Amino acid sequence: MIRFGFSRRVKGPNRQEVAGVLEMLGTNSIVLVGLMGCGKSAIGRRLAACLKLPFVDADDEIEKAAGKTISEIFEDHGEVEFREGERKVIARLLAGGPQVLATGGGAYMDAETRARIAEKGISVWLKADLSVLMRRVSRRDNRPLLKTGKPSAVMARLMEERYPTYAKADIVAESRDVPHEQIVSEIAAMLIDLRPRSV
Ligand code: S3P
Questions:
Q1: CB distance 59 to ligand 1 below 6 Å
Q2: Nearest to 183, CA basis, from 171, 166, 193, 195
Q3: Which of 11, 81, 116, 118 gets the most CB atoms within 10 Å of its CB?
Q4: Going by CA atoms, what residue is nearest to atom 16 of ligand 1?
């Protein structure tokens, strides 16, 4: 047998399945939650392209609204003010669906934001283990929380604190070292399963 190429193509949703997901969403959003480095932006961007939806990154929008980077906001105003801005920006963004919305790692920990996401979206937790998260966050130096101690110890503590809350998301996808397309297609399959069926 002759094989062309090195990677097996991952089968994404077909046109009818995409249409079904879009119908189910209406003006609601698919909201990606999970720890720093779990792939919310990279996977979110691909999921949006696959569903032909806009992709929005809440952290980028917070930076635009503040005219400062996340690190500068933490430095100049502290975490409490950052969280207030984050809550407001996400509330505004959720009014603008349908879209795929990636949120910063702490956003879903806020009860008000969680309630708003439940009302205006389908939440997807990208669950990853410590080694995957650490490998990915070590590529950049833009996360103020990881500068508050030994990064792997901070991340391990955040996993312990946050995973029970992330587990409340509608969908849980295992983020791991496989092509992003595979995770996108797994999320799409779970979204398709959420569709109300006419029998
Ligand atoms: C944070 C995660 C960051 C950013 C901020 C705080 C957190 O976003 O919102 O540094 O509390 O986990 P990413 O998860 O996109 O890195």
A1: yes
A2: 171
A3: 116
A4: 36
For the segment 57-109, what is each residue's pLDDT rounded down to a tens digit? Answer: 999 999 999 999 999 999 999 999 999 999 999 999 999 999 999 999 999 99
Q: Is residue 8 part of a domain?
A: no
Residue type, 125: W
**CA distances to 40, 109, 124, 126, 166 from 24, in Å:** 22, 26, 15, 21, 23
Nearest ligand 1 atom to the CA of 79 is 6
CB distance 144 to ligand 1 below 6 Å: yes
Closest to 126 (Cα-Cα) out of 28, 30, 12, 53: 30
* Model-wide pTM > 0.85: yes
6 within some domain: no
Nearest atom, ligand 1, residue 40 CA: 15
Return the ligand 1 atom nearest residue 71 CA: 10
Q: How many domains does the chain have?
A: 1
Domain holding 132, by residue range, is 15-192
